[in-house]
Specification:
Number of strands: 2
Structural class: mainly alpha
Order of helices and strands: HHHHEHHHE
Radius of gyration: 16 Å
Shape: elongated
Distance between the termini: 15 Å
Largest sheet: 2 strands, antiparallel
Number of helices: 7
Strand content: 5-15%
């Protein structure tokens, strides 16, 4: 379910970023080509805002909402704050880089990925 939720989020972000980057390129008339790092800053900033804000506000991105899963603090199941949500997003990069982070979620007893361990979070289903 986590992978499917991530797919929904990727589709939404991809559409939004395509429109945003096209708009910046159109309005900037070459600004993106002259500042090579600008698209990466825009993409990273939008992703950070998307995952940080949605996770901190209810523990769910639109993808997680679709599959009725949410992120909570591991210790007591409470909602996560913005700082923890942003830290979780940044730590998720390690799960991607090493690949083992998601393998931990698939094979582990509590299904926590590497970024969940690092951020002190867990993903719960439905009314858990």
């Amino acid at each position: 379910m986590r992978g499917a939720a991530r797919g929904v989020d990727a589709a939404l972000l991809g559409a939004a970023l395509s429109i945003l980057l096209f708009g910046v390129a159109y309005v900037g008339a070459g600004a993106i080509e002259s500042v090579e790092w600008l698209p990466m800053v825009i993409i990273g900033g939008v992703q950070l805002a998307y995952f940080g804000a949605f996770t901190a506000r209810g523990g769910q991105t639109p993808g997680k909402m679709a599959f009725r899963i949410r992120v909570v603090k591991n210790s007591d199941g409470a909602p996560v704050c913005l700082g923890r949500a942003l830290g979780r997003f940044v730590a998720e990069g390690l799960s991607y880089v090493f690949g083992l982070g998601y393998l931990m979620a698939a094979l582990g007893k509590r299904h926590r990925a590497l970024h969940d361990f690092l951020a002190g979070t867990r993903v719960v289903h439905g009314g858990e």
